[in-house]
């Protein structure tokens, strides 16, 4: 399990970095013309949402996921107060894109709200964006032998910035999927099992069915039809499509995700997490890993988690 748990985290981070070069480009003709087929990590084009970023770095979603990984490695557990403090420090002088949910959360923290009260809580403030739920791979690694703690930590880390029922439910759903896949289930089987669980105020089963029903269809066309935007009603079924259609091909899943445009980062973080957990380290292209600037740091942090928090795997 340990090797696949490591791949779960590394594939999630790598998916975000692969998305960086064309992130939030919605016009796929522009991707084709100005970026080309994204088969390696790229620096964003000049006029992008991430002009300060270099090849091999992360979007603001990946950056926040790294803050979470650093927090759990430092503490040997998920500590919402430590994560909140580190997250606020990180954004104090952040030289990157700050989205609506981050702005709302920072304002709520400044007003004296606690980590469980500060999160954006409306569609207008980005609370229904999948990105808030998509940071959870480090928690899956930390609690790979304790599913209940993984689920609780996934719920609380999401609430801190995205306090909306559909985002919380999405985090719990994908946590259930990751747990099952690490335990030996295939992603599609795990998705079907997780869809049968109750989720308050979120039509999870409907979104799952939409994604599974589309696996024979062209990915770019499918994601455009679902919607390329950040909101979960679009990004959730699109992520299910990617995981199910490319269940045995992580590389293809992440490339086709980017080529479909829009919020490829959040979709990629989740898709990489699940397929990395299933296919293991060998599925992640070596040239992607070589170009990932934080690779050494991530590897060291995972080792630190093992020293502090986990019994040795057999």
Please supply descriptive tags for the structure shown above:
314 residues, mainly alpha, ADP-ribosylglycohydrolase fold, 0% strand
Detail the poorly predicted runs.
Answer: none
Series of H and E elements? HHHHHHHHHHHHHHHH
* CATH fold-level name: ADP-ribosylglycohydrolase fold
Provide the number of structural domains: 1
Through-space gap between termini: 9 Å
Say how many strands there are: 0
Count of alpha and pi helical runs: 16
Q: In angstroms, what is the radius of gyration? A: 17 Å
CATH architecture type? Orthogonal Bundle
Envelope shape: globular
Short description:
It contains 16 helices and no strands.
Would you give an account of this structure?
The chain is built from 16 helices and no strands. The protein is mostly helical. The protein has one domain: ADP-ribosylation/Crystallin J1 (ADP-ribosylglycohydrolase fold), CATH 1.10.4080.10. It is globular.
Layout of SSEs?
Elements: H1 2-20, H2 28-35, H3 60-75, H4 80-92, H5 100-110, H6 137-142, H7 147-161, H8 165-182, H9 187-195, H10 204-213, H11 219-226, H12 232-245, H13 250-259, H14 264-279, H15 286-291, H16 295-309
